[in-house]
TrEMBL record:
<dbReference type="Pfam" id="PF16977">
    <property type="entry name" value="ApeC"/>
</dbReference>
<feature type="domain" description="Apextrin C-terminal">
    <location>
        <begin position="187"/>
        <end position="390"/>
    </location>
</feature>
<dbReference type="InterPro" id="IPR031569">
    <property type="entry name" value="ApeC"/>
</dbReference>
<protein>
    <submittedName>
        <fullName>MACPF domain-containing protein 2</fullName>
    </submittedName>
</protein>
């Protein structure tokens, strides 16, 4: 590497532009393809050991044909004088590493007399002091701006805190009014799941940000596999029945609440919903149904945000509290399903109800415990679940 000064000699009195340039020697560039880094360094004048070098400028990943680096001073300043060198790291066409370093270049210092050196040191001192004052002023201005910004941030934080100093119920009410401004009745809070209708999940506070999931049950093969698909469940999210080779499946999709808000308890009535998590919504009783899906090469599956249990064991939360003809009050904007709990479907104010069902081909001997929805074992070993579909009147 070669380091050079233009003009070659300078003094304190020189008033023109000064350029310090570093570039590879031609003989060194025969096999070198690129330079990973090339830099100019200056010896630290305050280090008595003369071993400390400070990098002034560098550039990286340079093609050898354009490899150079330079520093230009508009005029001679005390900082111009000192001892400089440059070095570089490159790679040959064979990817071998090549290191290069220039000779030291002493600008001005070696030719100075004692008096000139003293003058230079005094000038350097004054120059550094001026920079310190200038930098101090800039730092003071930055500190002032930072203090102003911090005060504004505190004011904004206080304003936000003042606006949200309200009870949890009030905050929920505000969010509810923003998200669902037309709804006067909302779905109960806590965790639970509903069968998903073809129209999708309810758009409501309790379901906002919730997720969907599914149970895929491996049914026992039957020639009557699709017999219940003929208008028995026209509103359930599909595809309900699917076939893969010799395997037959039924897939139940669910809408799962977020459980994040306290929007009230389930009303009195006769119905069942699906359990989610380790606890039951307030006032509802536990129950489960064990379903004997295909035992040979069983391919039961589940995914997404799902109810408790598994495809072969469905867990329910049920309410049995009054005459089912006594109207329940529920959100009416979006269709939904409830599991039937004995007798006719529960009546809901402002909604039409339609009894539907789906059947699962099983190996028989299915078991139920606790409080569970109405289901009918069929003579062929299948299990029929009766569900109530609600839509706005």
């Amino acid at each position: 590497m070669t380091i050079s000064l233009d003009p070659p000699e300078i003094s304190k009195a020189y008033a023109g532009e000064v350029t310090l340039r570093c570039e590879p020697n031609i003989s060194q560039t025969v096999e070198v393809e690129t330079l990973s880094i090339i830099r100019i360094m200056k010896r630290d004048t305050f280090d008595a050991t003369e071993k400390t070098w400070v990098t002034l400028t560098e550039t990286k990943n340079v093609d050898i044909d354009n490899a150079f680096i330079q520093i230009t001073w508009p005029s001679v300043v005390p900082e111009t004088f000192g001892v400089y060198r440059c070095d570089a790291i490159g790679f040959t066409t064979n990817s071998d590493i090549v290191l290069g370093k220039s000779e030291d270049l002493d600008i001005g210092l070696s030719a100075l007399t004692a008096n000139s050196l003293l003058d230079l040191l005094l000038e350097t001192k004054n120059y550094l002091q001026e920079n310190v004052v200038k930098n101090s002023d800039e730092i003071s201005n930055l500190d002032l701006k930072l203090t102003t910004l911090l005060e504004k941030e505190k004011d904004i934080s206080r304003e936000i805190a003042d606006r949200f100093k309200m009870s949890e119920k009030t905050r929920e009410s505000v969010i509810r009014s923003l998200l669902f401004p037309t709804s006067s009745v909302h779905w109960p809070g806590q965790r639970y799941a509903l069968l998903q209708p073809v129209s999708g999940c309810p758009v409501d506070f309790s379901f906002y940000g919730g997720h969907t999931g599914y149970f895929k049950l491996h049914a026992v093969s039957s020639s009557d596999f699709n017999k219940s698909s003929n208008n028995s469940h026209p509103h359930i999210a599909g595809p309900l029945y699917t076939v893969s080779g010799e395997n037959q499946f039924i897939t139940l999709k669910f809408c799962v609440t977020n459980g994040a808000f306290n929007t009230g308890n389930w009303p009195n009535g006769n119905y069942c919903i699906l359990k989610v998590g380790s606890s039951y919504p307030t006032g509802l009783s536990a129950g489960s149904i064990d379903i004997r899906t295909k035992s040979t090469n069983n391919q039961d599956n589940m995914g997404g945000n799902i109810p408790s249990g598994k495809p072969s064991q469905m867990q329910f939360c049920c309410k049995r509290s009054s005459d089912r003809s006594q109207l329940m009050v529920m959100p009416t904007e979006h269709p939904f399903y409830l599991y039937r709990l004995g007798g006719a479907c529960q009546e809901i104010a402002g909604m039409d109800v339609q009894l539907e069902y789906f059947e699962i081909q099983t190996e028989g001997s299915n078991r139920a415990s606790g409080t569970f929805p109405y289901h009918i074992p069929q003579s062929d070993g299948s299990l029929r679940f009766e569900i109530c579909y609600y839509s706005k009147s």
